Amino acid sequence: MLIVLNKLATLIFWLLALLVWSQGWGGYLGWLPVMALVVLGVHVLEVLYFWVAFRKDSQNPLADAVQILVFGIFHLRRFIEVRAQ
User: Fold this and answer.
1) What pLDDT, on a 0 to 100 scale, did the predictor assign at position 45?
2) Transmembrane stretches, by residue range (predicted)?
């Protein structure tokens, strides 16, 4: 249940970052698109890690890569936990 809440919070973050970027808001919210680019960079690294280490464990690697790009570690954790068992 906690993973679902984390994914929901991440989705809200992406939607808010897109809204701030499209509306051109200033102040502290103006930094949100910049932070989203940093998070996107980290998520790209996570996708690369998934592709190298866990692609063969996935039934649909492309769909999992897209979900990791959006949700990051919250989707990648399921592959890490399965491998750790």
Assistant:
1) 98
2) 32-52
How is residue 61 written in tokens?
């690697």
pLDDT at 82: 82
Rounded to 10 degrees, the C-alpha dihedral 28/31/32/34 comes to: -170
pTM of the full predicted structure?
A: 0.89
- Per-residue pLDDT band for 85 (boundaries 50, 70, 90) equals confident
Instruction: Give the chain's domain count.
Output: 1
Q: Among residues 40, 36, 38, which one has the least CA distance to residue 48?
A: 40
Beta carbons of 58 and 68 less than 8 angstroms apart: no
- How far apart are alpha carbons 70 and 52 in whole angstroms? 18
Range of 36's domain?
A: 2-84
Cα-Cα-Cα-Cα torsion 18, 51, 46, 42, nearest 10 degrees, comes to -60
